[in-house]
Design goal:
alpha+beta, three-stranded antiparallel sheet, 3 strands
């Protein structure tokens, strides 16, 4: 099983979408600054997860969430969780 996930920077206006088989370890890597792409936006909080049966399906969903429509939905999830 592969998870597609979205994290939101707590301090900056930044949402990252990725996929992983080990979500806990991946979140630790993001929050500790070990991921080059997200290093300058840490710390993060998880705002969305979705289970996929395989990497092909996960990649399709990841691409959707990275699109304009998908990112807009994620912004709404982030804003609901802040209130």
């Amino acid at each position: 099983m592969i998870l597609v996930y979205a994290i939101s920077s707590i301090e900056k206006n930044y949402i990252y979408v990725g996929m992983t088989a080990d979500l806990d370890e991946r979140l630790k890597r993001h929050n500790s600054g070990r991921e080059r792409t997200t290093r300058f936006y840490a710390p993060f909080r998880l705002i969305y997860t979705e289970e996929c049966s395989d990497r092909v399906a996960a990649r399709k969903r990841e691409k959707y969430w990275k699109s304009g429509v998908g990112k807009e939905q994620l912004r709404q999830y982030r804003n609901k969780n802040i209130s």
